[in-house]
Hints:
The protein is α/β, with parallel strands linked by helices.
Amino acid sequence: MVALPLGIRRVTLPLPFRLEHVHAYLLPGEDGWTIVDTGLGLPGARERWEEELRQLDGPVARIFVTHYHPDHVGAAADLAALTGATVLQGRRDYGQCALTWGTDRSAAVESWFLRHGMPEEAAAGLARETALARSVVHFVEDPELVDDGDDVGGWEVVASPGHADGQLTLLRDGVLVAGDHLLAPITPAIGLWPASSADPLGDYFASLERTIRLAPTVALPGHRDPIADPAARARELIVHHRERLDAALTAVQGRRRTAYDICADLFGSELTASDMRFAVTEALSHLERLAVEGRAASREDSGIVTYTAA
């Protein structure tokens, strides 16, 4: 296993679903510590963070959110109240965060999955899950907004869209604090959601190419272990998604199918109801990328979107 760079601390927080954990990172700096990501706003989150903060040799200067997904932003308000530190979040990411968690999006989510072929009962179940998730997402309203190229505690902000449209990473001296931009051996979910980028997989390809050019020496991901060769992992992820694009094209060859229809072709048949949330949106991102590349075409009939090979 790759060791953490000198001085950086990692906090591993529990998650109540299959992935089981998320990592936050504490970066030392001249004006204090920068906390990167916060975990979910679960009961006990404040006490867990109190335990971690007691071990620090200085104040928390800021809290940086890489992206708005619940396991990364969920305890931001709790941690801000505990430390008195300012929360920083990407400009685009905060807009999606406020829309997703600051309003009731359950009806929009249900409509989205119905439009892409999911049966009514399953779509209604995912809508209920979305509504329940809001209870553990305590984001901070009106955070300090940051953009690509900004400085955060001596680290450069690098926009890395794909897994989330507004995903930000931090880079300094070859160390990339990667959020969910790079993961290994699992792959980040690249899904197409309501009110998101029209081509998230295209965005992700561009982000991976940028990572290759930047050539960091180590990446600290939001899940699993540090990555010793981030550029090599970025190349592997490009190959992975190119292969999945070919599989998606085969799945719609000669017939019209929805994103829901092809989930088993891409991800196997052993999917839980909750897994289908990610399977459908990732199938959709690949189908839309095929359309952008001119290899597939979409059509909407009676409110249902289908795809076929061009």
